[in-house]
Amino acid sequence: MTMLASLGAASASDLARELGHSHQLVVQKIPKLVSLGLIWHRDDEDDARRRIFQLTEKGVAQLARFDRCCELLRAAYEKLFAEIGDVKNLVDRTVGALDTTPLSERVTSGPTG
């Protein structure tokens, strides 16, 4: 739906190409979006075999809600990371340390080593 909003109107082939997915996958997802009233289709004026899809008003509203949820989640994660620190850096340092000295070499016979 996000890609469809970006393109304005598109065929299943257009969507598949833009998303980097197979045509078959896109065609499998479209009927559900149509049945939910989030997108609609019309015949292509230049090629009767193609359908052109667009967001409905309901689809535009749903996408706006989705975007708002993403903003809220992004803000929540920013606050969390401000509180706990840079998790990615911690993970990268941990992986680096384990690359240098694997966990199997860090295991000792007792709790104090």
For this structure, the quaternary state is single chain
**Overall pLDDT metric:** 92
Biggest sheet strand order reads: 1-2
Count of alpha/pi helices: 6
Largest sheet: 2 strands, antiparallel
| Cα Rg | 24 Å
Distance between the termini: 56 Å
Number of strands: 2
- The helix content, as a percent range, equals 55-70%
Q: Name the helix and strand elements from N-terminus to C-terminus, one letter apiece.
A: HHHEEHHH
Shape: elongated
Class from helix and strand fractions: mainly alpha
- Give the DSSP E fraction (strand runs of 2 or more residues): 5-15%
User: Low-confidence parts, pLDDT < 50 over ≥5 residues?
Assistant: none
Describe the structure.
The protein has a two-stranded antiparallel ribbon with strand order 1-2. 65% of the residues lie in helices and 9% in strands. The relative contact order is 0.10. Strand 1 and strand 2 form a beta hairpin. The protein has 6 helices and 2 strands, in the order H-H-H-E-E-H-H-H. The model has no long low-confidence stretch (mean pLDDT 92). The termini are far apart. The protein has 113 residues and is mostly helical.
Characterize this entry briefly:
Helices cover 65% and strands 9% of the residues. The protein is mainly alpha-helical. The chain starts with a helix and ends in a 7-residue tail after the last helix.
